[in-house]
Amino acid sequence: xxxxxxxxxxxxxxxxxxxxxxxxxxxxxxxxxTVEVETTLTEIVLNAAELQIQSASVARExxxxxxxxxxLDEEAERARFTFPASIAPGEWRLTLRFTGALNxxxxxxxxxxxxxxxxxxxxxxxxxxxxxxxxRGFPCWDEPAFxxxxxxxxxxxxxxxxxxxxxxxxxxxxxxxRRLVAFADTIRMSTYLVAFVVGELEATDPVMVGxxxxxxxxxxxxxxxxxxxxxxxxxxxxxFERYYGLPYPGDKVDLLAIPDFAAGAMENLGAITFRENAxxxxxxxxxxxxxxxxxxxxxxxxAHMWFGxxxxxxxxxxxxxxxAFATFMELVAxxxxxxxxxxxxxxxxxxxxxMGVDGLEATRPIEFEVRNPHDCVAMFDLLTYEKGASVxxxxxxxxxxxxxxxxxxxxxxRHRYANAETTDLWKALGDAARQPIPAIMDxxxxxxxxxxxxxxxxxxxxxxSQRRFSYLGxxxxxxxxxxxxxxxxxxxxxxYVERRLLLDGDSATVPLPAKADWVVGNSxxxxxxxxxxxxxxxxxxxxxxxxxxxxxxxxxxxxGFALTQAGLMPxxxxxxxxxxxxxxxxxxxxxxxTSSLAYVNRVIADSQRxxxxxxxxxxxxxxxxxxxxxxxxxxxxxxxxxRGDLLRxxxxxxxxxxxxxxxxxxxxxxxxxxxxxxxxxxPAVIAILAASGGEGEYAEFRDRFKRARTPQExxxxxxxxxxxxxxxxxxxxxxxxxxxxxxxQDAPFVIRALLTSVDARGVAWDFVKExxxxxARQYPESAYRRMxxxxxxLVSPEWEQDVRAFFADxxxxxxxxxxxxxxxxxxxAVAFQQREAEALAAYLLRQKPR
Length: 850
Ligand SMILES: [Zn+2]
What we know:
The chain is α+β, with helices and mostly antiparallel strands. It is built from 25 helices and 29 strands. It has a ten-stranded mixed sheet with strand order 3-6-5-4-7-2-1-10-13-12, with no helix packed on it. It is globular and about 90 Å long. The mean pLDDT is 96. The structure holds zinc ion (ZN). Zinc ion binds at residues 267, 300, 304, 323, 326.
């Protein structure tokens, strides 16, 4: 089936009038679409889904309308209007009357509900149109290249707020008591960026950023949680106007917290929607991680006002132009806002996550064919966002930050109010850099995977060589080569030497003035490749970890574990390597260490768990002891977060009884005095109490989840309910994911967490097999797919067989190559288990108890 619309009729302007009825969960509307007809025709085809269209007519300006018949094709998500007379080329007005239902699936024009402090239910009507759901809100040419101007009018009950992309230009009280709100015309933009939000919402006072008022909207009673978002919102809006050298393209910015929201946030021009925990926060009670997430998401969405909204990809295969750039720019802005957060170093974790997927044979290139709406949904993944942002960062570092910014300005300037493709970006960056970009970049964007760079001694110098990295060791594309900006730093007799080269063949020899003591193969850490060191070099480097940058240490651990998963490094060698990091002070390096150990925990037999717990305690104890439980005067903000991370690792993965007892004592104090536990330690305490607690804690946490005062508190207690170890309690949590107690926006991620836990995965998998159809119906599609991210944690040959049989029997389409990726990750883990079981058992047996 061809999903693309014909271009014989092109929309120029939509005048939309929407009348949502919140109590009945329905809406009615009228669309007057000014179109340019290119050839004589009697039929007009556009997108519509789950709408009833009562009438369709076309007319010349001021002319007599020609009424047409309507045929809906739900499968193709199209409406076809046939007219009794032919329509000549030129400008026409197409007038459509339609009705629809405010659905509960968090897409299109949908209904979000919440209870106020007294338990009274309330309803909000909101939109989520990306990628292809504007057609569920009004009939339209629902493809990004059909840009048009939108003039929106909303008719709402008089006591409700109404928000759309632009400022209200006129409001009027109607005789029937309703209020009409007409909004100013938008810029030329794509349908997926249109937004309407209607409900009992309150707004903060506006913060002025130049000429642009910025506000936060939320349900009543939460305005006091908006301050932090306003701050980063104002900073990033101002920052981007300067960076891009172009004014903000709208007339106001509203940031709206919606109680039910499928994604993290959505960059509707001027009316950016968020899930509550990505916007609202009590700054004093939040951890660093929670604040960082809000800063990231707000900056990301504001970056989109230019990248995505002002200049838009021509088709969904180019979504990386939106998402990779917004992710890259989010980091640039947050790094400028809070340099002490070292945001680019933390980005190493995201880069490694993208490499986790991109090392699979079932990966895809960043730019990838998209045929239908299902494939569109699958494009919103780690490869588009994180790999995309990583290769942009690599290019920025290669060209220089100023040259890169000049190229970005040129690109936006050339294509504003229009659409663009990857080649347009290369052209602009190339013009700024005075060098051809495709030669460097095409291998990273249009080809799947990434290189493994091997570094070996070669005389006094080094030999570097490349091949494609693969977890399964297949060599389907063994001949694939990249142009890799390699940066080497070597410690030689009198200090360091740095060597930069663009490796584009199989290998190159790098001369050094003297034999290297140690060498870092991805100095600065921005290269999107993994490094494999000759054993002698790795040994020297492991002895010098105190002298290299945190991101470089992070890469040693992350690359080392990937090599272990791929069978290129024995697991015992990797576990030995982790012993070099007991004095580690960086939070990201610790996250690489603990996530690797958690992976090993999913692979080993139950009988070995005690020995692994002892190993975890050995690795973590010194660093945890150094930081203690209380904030210290000389703590950096990252130290404070690390303190929580280390205590959590000890109390859960390390099953440390002392830490668990102290966590119980800390929580007992917290019940009486909330200020007695540091905001970065409290989430860890809650997680530890779940991992070591029973029915009492479960009942308390469930209650606190329901009565949570902030979105962060709600999330902590919700995920704690997935962290208990008793099957009976875990079954209660599982029930909550299908009985409405957990919002459908969160439930798939709770399932994912349960599948990933060694204690819960068995019961969780059985539950998924039983309830997957109900879940598919209840959960938003974009989140439902992601619950299966937990499947690769089902590490045993029997489970693997069962998982494969399940998907073979049920034909569950997750879009793109998503399912193959999950199955391959499971294959990698089971192969790891089969390869390493004996060696791991012997290694763990040798560990001294601690
Ligand atoms: Zn985005």
